[in-house]
Here is the input.
Amino acid sequence: MSVDLATVKRVARLARIAVTEEDANRMVGELNGILGFVEQLGEVDVAGVEPMTSVTPMEMRKRTDNVTDGDKADDIVANAPSTDYNFFLVPKVVE
Amino acid sequence: MTELTSLTIAEAREKLKAKELTSVELTKAYLDAIEAANGVLNAYVAVTPEKALDMAKASDERRAAGKVGALEGIPLGIKDLFATRDVHTQACSHILDGFKPKYESTVSQNLWDDGAVMLGKLNMDEFAMGSSNETSHYGAVINPWKAEGSNQQLVPGGSSGGSAAAVAAHLCAGATATDTGGSIRQPAAFTGTVGIKPTYGRCSRWGIVAFASSLDQAGPIARDVRDAAIMLKSMASVDAKDTTSVDLPVPDYEAALGQSLKGMKIGIPREYRVDGMPDEIEKLWQQGIAWLKDAGAEIVDITLPHTKYALPAYYIVAPAEASSNLARYDGVRYGLRVDGTDIVDMYEKTRAAGFGTEVKRRIMIGTYVLSAGYYDAYYLQAQKVRTLIKRDFELVFDAGVDAILTPATPSSAFGVADEDLASDPVKMYLNDIFTVTVNMAGLPGIAVPAGLDHKGLPLGLQLIGKPFEEETLFRTAHVIEQAAGRFTPAKWW
Here is the structure.
């Protein structure tokens, strides 16, 4: 499978990355190069094989549902570009 | 290099114990060395001299009071991927401009708890994506090794290029690093240092900027096998904050050094003999086999049939996981923000300006292979191939093999800004051909320096082990190291 310019632009949208026309055109070639490389996976007979979900077989550890963290709003917003009263400020979210 | 910075961790540990040396003296020596060298090598992206000296002073005071941790007073460098409280943590990316976390990664906290001293943060490929340290927002790291008779600048490998270069150039006693597809082992091989990626789950990933969560693993890069063993003992731990970390006791890895290899079976996989592999690498591999045989191990030919599919499968799985992990960099809560007309415009402009080219490439591939209509053909297929790759190893280990010996890299260190590699991303990816299988299967792998090539550049061998049998790797790597000797670059910087 290969990508065209329209697909690259669509994927950029999904990934929320702005691409110039020039970038998008360049990416068509680069992404197709990578996709061409991974194409060989289609050769492998995977009949009856489960996809790997956990590389080290283990059951997820659980803990008691208690509050064990918090009360540090200042720390949480400390690195933010724009805040007000411990809220993160962003441009308006358009419907 | 001054005398003090030539000491390994084990040697410094003895001198500190014998009161021939203080941590403040040792730390000062490293800070001086960094000041003199970093403008040229660019291994550090943030040096923390005041913090280092404070920590060194506190360590000397602890020692005077009789409290001596496993790494007491030892000055270390920390890869920029590890969160270090109130200190530059950007994964060498523009998009995390100014980020100083209010928390410490579990792995680095383990090191401070054992008495170590932080010299600063080390350069790396942006978000750990790269094999040459050339994708860093802070520019390339220069390998302290140069080819005989040449002035050409070489890469230290990546993504942990800063870590490997700093260790090789004696700008720290040891360094932390991470490995997702080879990012500890390949730079270790390119710089004549020792690097181990432990079993997935051995070290906690909490506080490490995530690239591919099912592949990432922290590990040390150090000057020799003993130092790497000492560091891993402190780095490893189970962690309630990382449910993928495993609750198994951490052995005294150092004790494995010097143990006999008699009765051990070492597997030699035929599929690791790739087309176009330089003769020197094959020769080195044969030399490694001879050394292990001499030490009493039994050499067996093995087959890992799905080897060639590991790299393409990795370049689906890793970018897919990365596209998810890097979705959080949106200009809202930390790092760079580029203003936009509305929130989506802000996201798109911030991420376009903040991410480098390679990172964007991988996010795009990852987004594409996970998108509706393509998930089954790519991601699901890759995850099934991954099961087969792991199964190849399981069958070999079940048949009695204790460890597997392979080359670490398909070549020695290449030149900075190599045009051939720059023209085609896939060519750069091929650097990881011997290392990615190990991450895909979740196994431990160590790279140990084994010789020099015809240009006088270091080459490494890789050993792959059974899950949580890092002791076997240390024991075996030590034998190779004893036979091969130590490799230190001639100082030109």
